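Hi R.,

As promised on Friday, here is the backbone we talked about, encoded as structure tokens. Could you run it through your design pipeline when you get a chance and send me back a sequence?
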């Protein structure tokens, strides 16, 4: 400490070491965590303490959809802080009214009543409570290949292995799992279209046999767990099934929303109207933490005469809301939803070329600027290089080895178990797309060499 109490300049090594020593690194074994000191980020790039630049090829956690340091959104944070930094959720604020009006412009029609939280996790918790309160039923059907958040309800609803550490105590009462829709690696070994979407029919079978089902939650396009795009009939069929049984449909658009798939929300591809839509991440391009749980007026009406038993101190926090208005306006001004749609064929063609060239690439799939490149040991059996168990046991994963080489070459690429999630900011240029995909191409030989 200096005499004035200010902290002396720290080196990048000190900053990384202090962070490492005093903070938890999430979803990982701690001993391998060496957090990179990042000092700046602009557009599709960020810069480390040594001045090295990295192409942000997955928009951090698939969330910085506008790219870094958008001047208008940065400005809006200061403006909101100066105007009104905090008011409790019982009050009306200008930011709250402006954002609500803006949401009505872009959300699927019919979603008209909003609960603002500060993360996707919290927004999903709100959705579960609302669904249970309105229907008076308890069970929530989720799917195995899914992530819905980290707190008790949302982790219990999560199908992927991040749930395992919490079991059995954190199992959560009433969460049951349906098979995912994964046409490349169908869990019930069906083949589309001959299957006639048996996975949706099985979900109906579950609703009948479980009874007491309040809601079904799906990521309409599954994110981290493989950018799984359902066949066109799936979501309309699921909507019909839910209607037939008086079960609510919750669309978790935390990752797939906000232009990522080339539509404002991924359900828009199939014109399906959920009863509840949950989102976060891209709503502010992640500059400030905001989650949204949007419901139909019909659900909202229930609470006119019933107690809405939910809330947070930070619900509808003005500093989270003002920048969301600026984010949506910037997305509209820059036509980023249209841009993601128009770049889709370019990305698809380039990734298909990787599949032609590299025997380890089993599948490429996606929509908009949201793609997975899935690696397999063997294209016939489609066996992945690593398993969910490898991931939670901290074994070295082939995708992580490749991502580390890409990082050394200045491209930050998210990887999960046996695939990569390609999701650059929606402002990405063709040159930046070329650079990211060329860098992946350069290192896929690591996996090709391990082909069975
Ligand atoms: C589909 C989905 N739902 C929920 C969440 C949880 O959101 P958060 O990390 O903001 O709590 C995530 C996070 O990645 C997600 O991808």
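Update: got your reply. Pasting your designed sequence below so it's all in one thread:
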């Amino acid at each position: 400490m200096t005499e004035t109490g200010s902290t002396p300049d720290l080196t990048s090594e000190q900053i990384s070491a202090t962070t490492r020593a005093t903070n938890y690194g999430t979803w990982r074994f701690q001993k391998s965590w060496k957090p990179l000191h990042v000092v700046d980020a602009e557009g599709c790039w960020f810069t480390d303490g040594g001045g090295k630049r990295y192409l942000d090829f997955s928009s951090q956690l698939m969330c910085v959809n506008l790219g870094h340091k958008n001047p208008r959104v940065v400005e809006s944070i200061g403006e909101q802080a100066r105007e009104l930094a905090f008011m409790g959720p019982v009050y009306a604020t200008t930011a709250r009214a402006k954002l609500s009006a803006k949401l009505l412009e872009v959300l699927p029609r019919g979603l008209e009543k909003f609960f603002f939280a500060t993360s996707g996790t919290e927004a999903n918790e709100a959705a579960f409570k609302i669904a249970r309160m309105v229907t008076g039923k308890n069970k929530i059907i989720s799917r195995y290949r899914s992530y819905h958040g980290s707190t008790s309800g949302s982790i219990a609803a999560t199908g992927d292995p991040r749930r395992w550490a919490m079991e059995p105590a954190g199992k959560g009462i009433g969460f049951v799992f349906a098979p995912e829709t994964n046409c490349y690696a169908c869990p019930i070994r069906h083949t589309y279209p001959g299957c006639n979407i048996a996975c949706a029919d099985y979900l109906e079978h579950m609703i009948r046999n479980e009874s007491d089902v309040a809601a079904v939650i799906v990521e309409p396009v599954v994110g981290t767990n493989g950018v799984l795009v359902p066949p066109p009939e799936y979501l309309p069929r699921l909507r019909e099934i839910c209607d037939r049984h008086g079960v609510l449909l919750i669309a978790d658009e935390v990752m797939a929303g906000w232009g990522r798939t080339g539509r404002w929300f991924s359900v828009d591809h199939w014109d399906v109207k959920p009863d509840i839509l949950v989102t976060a991440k891209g709503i502010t391009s992640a500059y400030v933490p905001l989650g949204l749980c949007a419901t139909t007026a019909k659900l909202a009406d229930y609470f006119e005469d019933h107690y809405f038993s939910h809330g947070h101190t930070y619900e509808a926090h003005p500093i989270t809301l003002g920048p969301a208005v600026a984010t949506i306006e910037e997305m509209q001004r820059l036509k980023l939803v249209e841009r993601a749609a128009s770049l889709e064929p370019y990305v698809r063609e380039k990734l298909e070329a990787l599949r032609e060239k590299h025997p380890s690439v089993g599948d490429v799939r996606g929509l908009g600027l949201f793609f997975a490149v899935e690696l397999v040991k063997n294209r016939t059996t489609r066996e992945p290089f690593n398993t969910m168990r490898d991931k939670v046991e901290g074994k070295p994963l082939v995708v992580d080895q490749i991502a580390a080489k890409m990082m050394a070459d200045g491209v930050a690429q998210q990887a999960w178990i046996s695939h990569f999630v390609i999701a650059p900011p929606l402002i990405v240029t063709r040159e930046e797309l070329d650079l990211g995909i060329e860098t992946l191409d350069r290192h896929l030989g690591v996996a090709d060499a391990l082909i069975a």
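One thing I noticed while checking it: The pocket of pyridoxal-5'-phosphate is lined by residues 61, 119-121, 124, 147-149, 219, 223-224, 252, 254-255, 280 (CB under 6 Å).

Thanks again,
M.
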